[in-house]
Amino acid sequence: MDLISESMIKKNEENEENKANETEETENNNEEKKVNEDEDPKTIESFNPQRIYQDPEPDPELDSDSEKEENSLLEGEDSEKGIRFLTPFDVKTKPEKKYCFFLKNKIKYIDYKNPKFLIKFLNERGEILPRRITGTSKKFQKRLTKAIKRCKQIGLLPYITDRLR
């Protein structure tokens, strides 16, 4: 019985070595035969879809740990690291207060002959932006509207456009 089992073990080892040699040879052959994008991979003899994509084996230890963490989070238990939220926690802060550009920079006169400056207060289609967006005061919004309308009238700004900026 010992002789038979020893001979079988030797044969198995030889078979494993042969398989290893064959896989090395096929890998070398595959490297030599590069697949062109135009060629169909089915026409190549050495094409083996199982070698290209192998499903990763799931690690049972990782799955159990992640499930435990999720369950503890859902139940509301505090972990060693502290409280963790499923979604990021947003701190609501006050939005920055809008200010009048003209009052801040002490501009008293809006020049209607300066289209580069006036473009800042127009949207892409050439419409005047409202006060709630620009933050200008009521007084300067009226002056700005007059200046933009004059600029459009003398032809420095277009009335309507697709891409102004």
From TrEMBL:
Residues 8-22 have a biased composition (Basic and acidic residues). GO terms for biological process: translation. Residues 1-79 are annotated as: Disordered. GO terms for cellular component: cytosolic small ribosomal subunit. GO terms for molecular function: small ribosomal subunit rRNA binding; structural constituent of ribosome. It comes from the Bacteria. Keywords: Ribonucleoprotein, Ribosomal protein, RNA-binding, rRNA-binding. Residues 56-68 have a biased composition (Acidic residues). The keyword rRNA-binding applies. Pfam families: Ribosomal_S18 (PF01084). Belongs to the bacterial ribosomal protein bS18 family. Part of the 30S ribosomal subunit. Forms a tight heterodimer with protein bS6. Binds as a heterodimer with protein bS6 to the central domain of the 16S rRNA, where it helps stabilize the platform of the 30S subunit. This is Small ribosomal subunit protein bS18. It comes from Karelsulcia muelleri (strain SMDSEM) (Sulcia muelleri).
